[in-house]
Amino acid sequence: MTSEANAEARQVAADLGTAFASNDAMVEAVLAQRARGDVPDRASLAAVLGEQLRTHPEWLGKSTMWEADAFDGKDAEFVNTEAHDATGRYMSYWAWQDGAPQQSPMTDYTEAADGSADWC
């Protein structure tokens, strides 16, 4: 029983390590763009997130959320556009829908009265 639990724990640790590594790669790509003086591109990063989810069907979803105007300073240009809410804030969320990754804006990220947005 103990060896079975240890094996499961190792698998969970490996799965989490893969997820964390994908996040690290995403951050490094954005930081490299900024270091070159380039403005990060929302569509390109969203495509990366979608592809990361597609290659990991065991994941439930993949997302990134940035403070207001922190990603590219262009929130006003993205208000109520595809995969954005009324703030225009960059917050790409990908989840499985009908067997394929689908992008949508995050919701309820400011509703903390009941603790549902404590991570924000």
Kindly summarize this structure in a few lines:
The protein is of the alpha+beta class and about 120 residues long.
Strands in their spatial order, largest beta sheet? 1-2-3
Tell me the overall shape.
globular
Distinct helical segment count:
2
Average pLDDT: 88
Beta-strand portion reads 15-25%
Number of distinct beta strands: 3
User: How far is it from the N-terminal to the C-terminal residue, by CA?
Assistant: 39 Å
- Low-confidence spans: none
Structural category is alpha+beta
As a whole number of angstroms, the C-alpha radius of gyration is: 17 Å
Element string (H = helix, E = strand)? HHEEE
Characterize the biggest β-sheet: 3 strands, antiparallel
Helix content range of the residues, please?
25-40%
List keywords for this structure.
15% strand; globular; alpha+beta; 39% helix; 3 strands; 120 residues
Helices and strands, with pairings:
Blueprint: H1 2-35, H2 42-54, E1 61-65, E2 91-97, E3 100-105
Antiparallel strand pairs: 1-2, 2-3
Region (Disordered): 101-120
